[in-house]
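In the laboratory, one determines a bound structure by crystallizing the protein with its ligand and collecting diffraction data. In a computational setting the workflow is compressed into a single prediction: the sequence and the ligand go in, and a structural description comes out. We illustrate the idea with flavin-adenine dinucleotide.
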Amino acid sequence: MTTILVPIESLEGAVLPVSLEILTAARQLAATTGGEVEALVLSGDAAKLTSKLGAADRIIAVSHPALEHYHPEAHLIVIAGIIQQRKPCAVLFAYSTAGLDLGPALAEKLQWPMIGYCTAISLDNGRINAQSQGFGGRLTVASQAALPAILTIMPGAFTEAEASGNPPIENWQPPALLSKLRMTRVKGTSPVPGGVDISEAEKIVCVGRGIKDKDSIEAARGLAEILGAELAGSRPVIDNGWLPKERQVGKSGRKVKPKLYFALGVSGAPEHLEGMKSSALIIAINTDKTAPIFGCAHYGATCDLFELLPNLSQQLR
Ligand code: FAD
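The predicted complex, in structure-token form:
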């Protein structure tokens, strides 16, 4: 029986939605082989994290104080031990903080092949086929690897699995090595409470480098206020310190899908589109009619945002 192992990620006592996406990817693989999906939960009290994992055929739970928070060394020790005993044909991670640490480290430790940035995967004749997205979406690569293999899957490539079943839970004894960790987690700090979460916003006005300078952002802020929208920025706007990091949209910022996304002076680089292309209604303003943002915008105007903004704000008022 081929087994696909999915190490589950959690933060502050809750399973991360991306792990449910990875369970969907694992279910698809298992469907082609008649194999099983095992969800691996590591936590201070793993039993508290199992309720959303009904898409798995089995849950392996390991509880230990060293696993209360994500700890690369501790997680690596436990997952490597479980893999050596359970012998899965594939281990699926998200392309995430933990996946980026653990995937390559395990591949090296176990001498398994690894394919990263996967957006589609299938099993065929004992080999894994994967499609990967590289360089911020500018390159798509088809790869094959012998099994067993490790894969890191791009967030958003699969939908979240529903907790449809009630899988059995196997509790595993934590390895003794967890009391001899060489690395210590000193402190974790969450963003300041009350800070904005643009991923929840229903309307967003996003400024790009076309806004030119920090002072000019006030005009965009005016439009955002009239629309009842949150103000956001592309990466250069954040890197220049014109808006705080929590307002960055894109690959290295927040993924958003508001009902309205108003892009002002944003070119639409792949790394930006990755964070906003699922918005329900995208309106783009850009002086360059060839700007890639127009490729995903529902409405657009090729004009100077500084000429448009005062008139638009006045009309909307
Ligand atoms: P530009 O590409 O400089 O575009 C400015 C646009 O404004 C141009 O299209 C121009 O025609 C237009 N413009 C100029 N003047 C006016 C005017 N007066 N009126 C109207 N339009 C005007 N980028 C992100 O946004 N988010 C990310 O999370 C992100 N993560 C990244 C991660 C990695 C690993 C890498 C390599 C890059 C990342 N980037 C990210 C950067 C990304 O590649 C682009 O450089 C960035 O998105 C460009 O931002 P921009 O559109 O604001 O600027």
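The radius of gyration is 22 Å. Keep in mind that any predicted model is a hypothesis to be tested, not a measurement.
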